[in-house]
Write a structure and sequence with these properties.
Arc Repressor Mutant, subunit A, 3 domains, single chain, alpha+beta, four-stranded antiparallel β-sheet, Threonyl-tRNA Synthetase, Chain A, domain 2, 20% strand, five-stranded antiparallel β-sheet, 291 residues, 9 helices
Amino acid sequence: MNKSKWAALFCFSLGGMMLFLHFFATSTKENKDAEAIKINLAIRQTIHNLHKIAEDDTTMVFPVEQIFENTHRTEIEKEINYDTLPTVLDTALKNFGIERAYIVSIRDCEEDKVILGYNLLAFENGNIACQGRIREGDCCNALSVTFDDVKKKSNLYLPFAFLSFIIGGIGLFISVKKLDKKKTKLTNTASSVNTIQIGNSFFQPQNLFIQVDNESKKLTFRESKLLEYFATRPNQVLKREDIQDAVWSEEGVIVGRSLDVFISRLRKILRKDERLAIKNIHGVGYRLEVK
């Protein structure tokens, strides 16, 4: 084994050991997946309790989606009492052991605009804005809760972490110089397989990402699943019930209004692409027209 390979092996081994020490020292007791499940359940419990306060035993509690790493969102079929929301939500979070700071917003489902909102500090200080306000008419709201990042509990190995990145970088540089160019071509080919071009837009279902008119847009899980169903069936008339079954079947309960809401969202996302249009086929369903 030549000297460059020995150097790369040494750098990676030492860097790996230091990274292990760093991550071991700064890890939290509960992993992120476990905490996300607790937050999901706490938000569902919140909506359930708000319906219970309103003596409503029939309104459905929609699934809670984690749309970003620290943001959880769910739709609300009927109006809730905004004045009671802060106490009910904070109690539910504490019952599930969630102690992180957070920001709460009530958004319009179709426009995705913030209607009402507050943060934990405002709740603790009894200074929540917009309480007592009532929205009139038939509207679709969404409850969105965004949490602060978890602070690291220990910086004991932080200097070693910086050193490990430097050493690992040296080893990486040495190794990259030895890679065959053919491997790079294969990697580029593989990364492009997951991209679907529709019209002038580029859609990556697995990454929940679409690029429209040179603008990048992060999609929710449900938006991506619905768009993928359309994108793989361009210019085809798709029955409403088939779309609902493909996108919402795993939930067991299909709410017809949800499809209309998500179609409206996709239209707003795709409207800058003049080659794309989601058309309503009266009495049947929808069609994604690709010019």
